[in-house]
Amino acid sequence: PTPKDTDMEMEVPDAAMNSGGKKFALPVDSENKATEFRIYSAAAPHMRAFHLSWVSFFACFVSTFAAPPLMPIIRDNLNLTSTDIGNAGIAAVSGAVFARISMGTACDLFGPRLASAALILLTAPAVFCSAMANSAVSFLLVRFFTGFSLATFVSTQFWMSSMFSAPVVGTANGVAGGWGNLGGGATQLIMPLVFSLIRDIGVTKFTAWRIAFLIPALFQTLSAFSIFFLGQDLPDGNYSRLQKSGDKHKDNFKQVLYHAVTNYRGWILALTYGYSFGVELTVDNIIAQYFYDRFNVNLHTAGIIAASFGLANLFSRPGGGLLSDIVAKKFGMRGRLWTLWIVQTLGGLFCILLGKVGSLGVSVAVMLIFSVFVQAACGLTFGVVPFVSRRSLGVISGMTGGGGNVGAVLTQVIFFRGSSYSTETGITLMGVMMIFCTLPILFIFFPQWGGMFCGPSSKGITEEEYYMSEWNSTEKDKGFHKASLKFADNSRSERGKKVDSALTPSNETPPTHV
């Protein structure tokens, strides 16, 4: 560690221990959330949770989008029409709409470990059953139920927000979400390769694609058991143990839900995320077939091109999360909001351009640039989400994540279902919708930090007052609000470079990191 790191750890030695006196491998804040993000570490509990979350989300992405790269074969085997294919694509992302909202609530009440492991195990049978699909209806159903697994994105973001402190939470969320999303690109390579290997040993192509689905099904099942046996909900332990010991109270579902649905910031982020992640999901569903049909490339080449879109998540979404944290150090929450709006708007412009160009080489180049911006916008969104609500973090995450799936469903229904629009026209119009649906970010305002065009409220509202408003006097008397107080203290970094001029309550001691 650097001298600065050493000094920080010396100043707050108690914060590096949990209630049992066990030291953490990473420096932590007063909530025992890690203040550093060490990507090459697998230390428990912080970095182990990170690796378990992104790998499991990756597995779910591979399963959900295992069908599109093999669609030309599946289409011929099951006699699917373009409408059947469009409906199946919509089904794959529509199931996760309510699953994501439910997952957020489950994370708030039972913890991300149990919630994600249970969902992954419950949806794995649908992946196995994909091998038995024999009609348009059965194919649609298995894609629908497999798509529920994408709700693990919510548990991934909730888990990272529970493990990492404000200065690095955008990075942690971005890398976990981005590397998980890599599954959408990896499956474009994995499934054609597995299919080819099976076919080359003498299996007919209409049987080979069915056997190939066993690989993502087994991968997904294994990831669920890994989370259950190796994961931990919070830095200090699992929800069940902490609730039994009295270190964490079991929250009231109605109150958690109320404070989420009445916070307008969550709804705006759900809308904008619908046209960043929602667009990404749509492209995952259509891009291989688009290049196969429009530019007459073979299945393998179309798969490689489509994979390059999803594989950009290796750096693009993490880059968005990292950028969010970097600008926040100087400009605070206002910087996070400005950067999100700029990046997502640019993504919309490149999406419009992608639908306009008619050359294979130029289309691939524009697609790659577009992928970087749209995926970075996803990472930037979840640089803001953790600060909307402390008490209802899971539901807010679920609302935002669900918004991504709603955007994907609406976009595919309007532009890519049937033959109302050509695929290239649909892509262009999708870019126009991206730009317009990003504009509401202009209206997000945090009274303690400000918004894009104005500073903090003149009433002098502090972080403590903002997050304490989610608790009533009875709950405060019982001490239920203490975790929110710690979070408020640690979120003062969102004031940006003018932090020294920000107010601190008279009964609070200014934290040493300010």
UniProtKB/TrEMBL annotation:
This protein's major location comes to membrane
Bias (Polar residues) occurs at 503-514
Q: Where is the Major facilitator superfamily (MFS) profile domain?
A: 49-449
GO BP annotations, alphabetical order: nitrate assimilation
Q: Where in the cell is it found?
A: Endomembrane system
> Gene Ontology terms, cellular component aspect?
endomembrane system; membrane
**Bilayer-crossing regions:** 54-73, 114-133, 140-159, 179-199, 211-231, 297-316, 337-358, 364-388, 395-415, 427-446
Keywords assigned: Membrane, Nitrate assimilation, Transmembrane, Transmembrane helix
Bilayer topology: Multi-pass membrane protein
Q: Which PROSITE patterns does this UniProt record tie to the protein?
A: MFS (PS50850)
* Lineage top rank: taxon: Eukaryota
Segments carrying the region annotation (Disordered) are: 486-514
Q: Indicate the segments annotated as coiled coil, or none if absent.
A: none
Q: Which Pfam families match?
A: MFS_1
Biased region (Basic and acidic residues) positions are: 489-500
> Example GO molecular function term?
nitrate transmembrane transporter activity
InterPro entries from the xrefs?
Answer: MFS (IPR011701), MFS_dom (IPR020846), MFS_trans_sf (IPR036259), NO3_transporter (IPR044772)
Family membership, please give it.
Belongs to the major facilitator superfamily. Nitrate/nitrite porter (TC 2.A.1.8) family.
Task: Spell out the protein name for this chain.
Answer: Major facilitator superfamily (MFS) profile domain-containing protein
Question: Which species is listed as the source?
Answer: Escallonia herrerae
